[in-house]
Amino acid sequence: MLEALRAAGWRAGRRIDTETWTQRLVAVGFEFNDVAIAVWAEFGELTIKSSPGRAPPRRCTWIPLTPASTRLRRLRG
Known about the structure:
two-stranded antiparallel ribbon; mainly alpha; 4 helices; 48% helix
């Protein structure tokens, strides 16, 4: 897993700006704690690819707004 994270651009101490995510999600009723924001800052927006032996190959990009998009659409109506 560490190899996949590094290949995706992760490094110890990585920090990205999470302000846009938190503002948008708080606006529709989500609440956060410091741990959640720290995890987002370190791992958000990374695209992790599956191991070469996996068939078919897969990848996962972690963007916190994605799981909330259904709720956002419902609220926008």
